[in-house]
Amino acid sequence: MQGGGPATGGAPAAARSSDLRLRVASALVLVPLAVGSAYLGGWPFAIFWGVAAAGVLWEWLALACGRTEPKVLGAGGVALVAALVLVGTGRADLAGLAALAGAAAAAWLGPWDARLWTAGGVVYAGALLIAVVVLRADAALGFVAIVFLFAVVWATDILAYFVGRALGGPKLWPAVSPKKTWSGALGGSLAAVLAGLAVLWPDNVAAAGKIAAIAFVLSAVSQAGDLFESHLKRQFNAKDSSALIPGHGGVMDRIDGFVTAVTAAVVIGLLRSGGQSPAAGLIAW
Question: Where are the domains of the chain?
Answer without folding.
Answer: 1-37+139-285, 41-137
